[in-house]
Amino acid sequence: MPRMIFLNLPVTDLKRATAFYEAVGGIRNPQFSDDTASCMVFSETIYVMLATHDKFRQFTPKPIADAKTSNQALFCLSADSRNEVDDLVGRAAAAGGVADPGPKDEYSFMYGRSFEDPDGHMWGVNWLDMAAVPTQPCMTNA
To answer: Does 114 share its domain with 83?
Structure first.
């Protein structure tokens, strides 16, 4: 069985967040959803658990950060093409997100853009030509 990932995100408006994630390709799984959380399925191995702040506080004693003013993590989804990258970012913007809050990545072997959801959680969407990667220099910020 492949390893699965469940991202848990606190949201201020569960209905709005659920509609946003449906617009960018997530499918709400009612088996693991209720009026305090929505389980959004992106693939057999990727799930995004949206939780109201009250629900999210049940899992951690730490304060919930305001993702619009601070950032602890960046999430990234793969895409099969440059067009799929543009399509997904376009759907995010149309659903109330912010397109391209970060710089675009544009190389011959990689193309990436980003979006923020309505709560400020930042997502990257990247296409990568794995066959071309070994011929490129190492990418570092150093």
So the answer is: yes
